[in-house]
């Protein structure tokens, strides 16, 4: 019976283009300016519903800030080396959780609200996005905290400069 369940799981994963085993990753977020109090962590975990993302930011300016997955894991040059938003299907900018992969960049995670003490949290699950082992993998890319809110305008949401960045590194199978 165990063999049949395992075989069924493998078949379903292949049909739905999901990884065969859950993986996890994290990005340690640091400010992009030399003198910056911004720190935080973004955790990523494969689930049957998609990629669960949990973010905690500390020491950031109060307000709403765009938060995205960017194409490359290099966070040098004040985060500019991370390239543009992760967009494997070349879609317009949008909110991937609300609009889906059919109309938004895969890395368009929206906004995170930072309170008066400089702290903020974000929790979301993005269907069809995974840590690794899939056409929509985030391992080796970067997360970017922007200075302004993402207004979901074209081409990248008008969120301004990059004030925090971290490379997404695999932490578990």
Question: How would you explain this protein's 3D organization?
Answer:
The chain is mostly beta strands and 173 residues long. It has one domain: Sandwich (Immunoglobulin-like). It is built from 2 helices and 9 strands, in the order αββββαβββββ. Strands 1, 2, 3, 4, 5, 6, 7, 8 and 9 form a 9-stranded antiparallel beta sheet that branches. β2 and β3 form a beta hairpin. The longest helix is centred in the N-terminal third of the chain and has 14 residues. The chain starts with a helix and ends with a strand. The N terminus is likely disordered.
Could you list some keywords that capture this structure?
9-stranded antiparallel beta sheet, 173 residues, disordered N terminus, globular, 36% strand, 2 helices, mainly beta, Immunoglobulin-like
Provide a quick synopsis of the model:
By secondary structure, this protein is mainly beta. Helix content is 10%, strand content 36%.
Task: Present the secondary structure layout.
Layout: H1 2-15, E1 24-31, E2 39-47, E3 50-58, E4 63-70, H2 96-99, E5 108-114, E6 120-126, E7 142-146, E8 162-167, E9 169-172
Antiparallel strand pairs: 1-2, 1-8, 1-9, 2-3, 3-6, 4-5, 4-7, 7-8
Query: So what's the overall shape?
Result: globular
Question: Structural class, from secondary structure content?
Answer: mainly beta
Distance between the termini: 25 Å
CATH topology: Immunoglobulin-like
> What is the typical, i.e. mean, pLDDT?
86
- The tally of strands reads 9
**Content of β-strand:** 35-45%
SSE order, one letter for each helix or strand: HEEEEHEEEEE
Q: What fraction, in percent, of the residue positions are helical?
A: 10-25%
CATH homology superfamily name: Superoxide dismutase, copper/zinc binding domain
């Amino acid at each position: 019976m165990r063999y049949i369940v395992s075989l069924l799981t493998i078949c379903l994963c292949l049909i739905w283009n999901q990884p065969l085993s859950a993986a996890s990753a994290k990005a340690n977020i640091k400010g992009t300016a030399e003198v910056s109090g911004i720190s935080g962590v973004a955790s990523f975990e494969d689930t049957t519903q998609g990629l669960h993302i949990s973010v905690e930011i500390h020491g950031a300016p109060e307000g709403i800030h765009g938060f995205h997955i960017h194409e490359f894991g290099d966070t040098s040059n004040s985060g500019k080396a991370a390239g543009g938003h992760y967009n494997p299907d070349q879609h317009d900018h949008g909110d991937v959780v609300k609009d889906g992969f059919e109309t938004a960049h895969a890395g368009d995670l929206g906004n995170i609200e930072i309170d008066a003490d400089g702290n903020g949290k974000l929790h979301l699950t993005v269907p069809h996005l995974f840590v690794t082992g899939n056409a929509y993998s985030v391992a080796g890319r970067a997360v970017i905290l922007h200075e302004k809110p993402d207004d979901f305008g074209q081409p990248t949401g008008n969120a301004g400069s990059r004030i925090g960045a971290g490379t997404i590194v695999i932490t578990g199978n």
